[in-house]
Structure formats: structure tokens, C-alpha cells
Amino acid sequence: MSTYELAISADGKTAYLTFGADSPPGGSVSLGTFDHNESDDPVHPHAGNHALFHHVRDILNKREAGSPADNAMFPYNITNMQAISIVRHGPAMNAEYLTAADVTAADPGTVAAVVKYQPANVNANNNDFNWVSSDPTKATVSAAGVVTGVANGTSTITATHKHSGLSVSFVMTTT
To answer: What is the C-alpha separation between 111 and 37, in angstroms, rounded?
Structure first.
């Protein structure tokens, strides 16, 4: 399950969708968050897919129905989905690929993995990934991306983004 945030531009013409630690652009107003199960219906990489459209529409409709005073936020008829653009915003939503450098640790020793969203070259939140070690007898990896050397040798560590399905691998060498 992943959490997204929806924000609206000051002119009411653009809905910004962000993921994880990404923030909406300055000047926009947060309309709330929603959780989405990517294993059943991925939101990324297609910004126009039905899941994104329906979640955005649901937030806008709930916002309008929940507080009539909030209708003033929608001077451009924002509940008409054809009147606005939906834009993915931030490195996590726009990542084309991921990078990670090989690491070395003494036995026993730990090192925190660093995964970057590219092309933005921004550090990712390690909790947004599922982590796997190819050889847990040489190195293990926690759910938070902390790699622990168990015995001398190498292990390939793979991080798969829970939201996009993008993955990256790097080698952990334990000395």
C-alpha cells in the first residue's frame, strides 16, 4: 500500500500528485492523501490511468461535499475533471530509473544503502522499497535498507520500489 498526496494549484487548473516524501510545489494547497495498492493496480508510470483519475476525482468530490465553504477553492469548476490537468510531481513520481553504488563493510558491519531517483539524482526513502539479498549467508538487508555483513564474501542486494516496480541492484562486499 502506498500513500499519495493531492494538491491543487492556486489558479485551480492543475492537480499535483506526489508520492512518499515528495512535496507538492509551493503555492499549491493540499487536498488530502489516499492509499493505493500498487500490486493490484499500479499508478506509475502512466499518469492518466484510471486509478489516478478515480482517486483524484474522489478526493475532489469528497472535499466539495464535506465542506460547502471549500467550494470557493474551486472557482474554475475543479470538480469537472476535464477542466484540470493532473501532473505527477517530484522525483519519486517522475523517476525513469534508480541508481545505487556498491558498498563494503567489515565483518560484522552495517551500511545504509543509498538509492537515488534519476534523472533528478535525489536520495530515495529506503522504506519505499522491498529489499532482498542474493546470499544472506554473506550479507542481510533490513526492511529499511540497512545492509549487514555476515561473513566474508559478496552478495547482490536488490531494492524494488513498492510504488513503481523499478528496481536497482548493487554489490555488498563483506571483508
So the answer is: 30
